[in-house]
Amino acid sequence: MSSKLNKFLLALISLIYMNNLLAHHVLGRPSYSLGEDSTTPPSMQVETQIGQYFVTYMVFPAFPKAGQNGRVNLYATHMSSGKAFNGEVTFKVKDDKWFGAKTEILGKQKIDDGVYRQGFVFRQDGDYIISAFFIADGEPYNIDFPLRVGQTSAIGPIGLTVLAVFALLIIVNIIQRKRLLRGKIQAAAQEKS
């Protein structure tokens, strides 16, 4: 009986040990090739159709911060043939502001394993617009998408304008009530005299 128990325990320990040997792969990828943001979801993933191309773009890491490395992945496939666009994509960035937004070129990328990858590092928190531009079959394609870096103010210029208008309406309402009340008091005083 103890011989059967020993064989069973030996087989169980062997299975546990072998399972640990195989555990270095995660979803078919070796764990040593995983980077810091490889297992995190993107902060945004958008799929859209533009002209003759189906475009998907993703931004990594999930919560980009100022001073830290980030990356944009862009996939562009022709709708009728299903083939990936094989050219050059120019990535640009500008502040998401109403006035004075200066555009900077992040870089020009060639396809790498079906993906156009562009790294970035922003110095300041804020809202930005990233553009991906390419020319295919003589036609220009430009894809813009927003990117929030770090924690920004919850109240932007539109929110400040709405708050100012709301405060002005409250002040006007209070002044009108005081005038109306003063008028009623004066009318009551004149009726008594």
How would you briefly describe this protein structure?
The chain has 193 residues and is an alpha+beta fold. The chain has helices spanning 2-22, 157-192, and strands spanning 25-26, 29-30, 44-50, 53-60, 69-78, 88-95, 103-110, 116-121, 126-136, 139-149. It folds into 3 domains: 1-32; 35-149, Sandwich (Immunoglobulin-like); 154-193.
State the share of residues found in helices, binned by percent.
25-40%
User: Would you identify the CATH architecture of the largest domain?
Assistant: Sandwich
| Number of E-type strands | 10
Shape: flat
- N-to-C order of helices and strands: HEEEEEEEEEEH
Strand order of the largest sheet: 3-4-5-8
**CATH fold type of the largest domain:** Immunoglobulin-like
**Multimeric state of these chains?**
single chain
How many helical stretches?
2
Q: What's the main sheet like?
A: 4 strands, antiparallel
Low-confidence stretches: 23-34
Mean pLDDT: 80
State the domain count. 3
The CATH top-level class label of the largest domain: Mainly Beta
Percent of residues in beta strands? 35-45%
Defining key terms:
193 residues, alpha+beta, Immunoglobulin-like, 3 domains, four-stranded antiparallel β-sheet, 2 helices, 10 strands, 38% strand, flat
Description:
The protein is of the alpha+beta class. It has three domains: 1-32; 35-149, Sandwich (Immunoglobulin-like), CATH 2.60.40; 154-193. It is 30% helix and 38% strand. The protein is built from two helices and ten strands. The protein has helices at 2-22, 157-192; strands at 25-26, 29-30, 44-50, 53-60, 69-78, 88-95, 103-110, 116-121, 126-136, 139-149. Strand 4 and strand 5 form a beta hairpin. The radius of gyration is 31 Å and the shape is flat. It starts with a helix and ends with a helix.
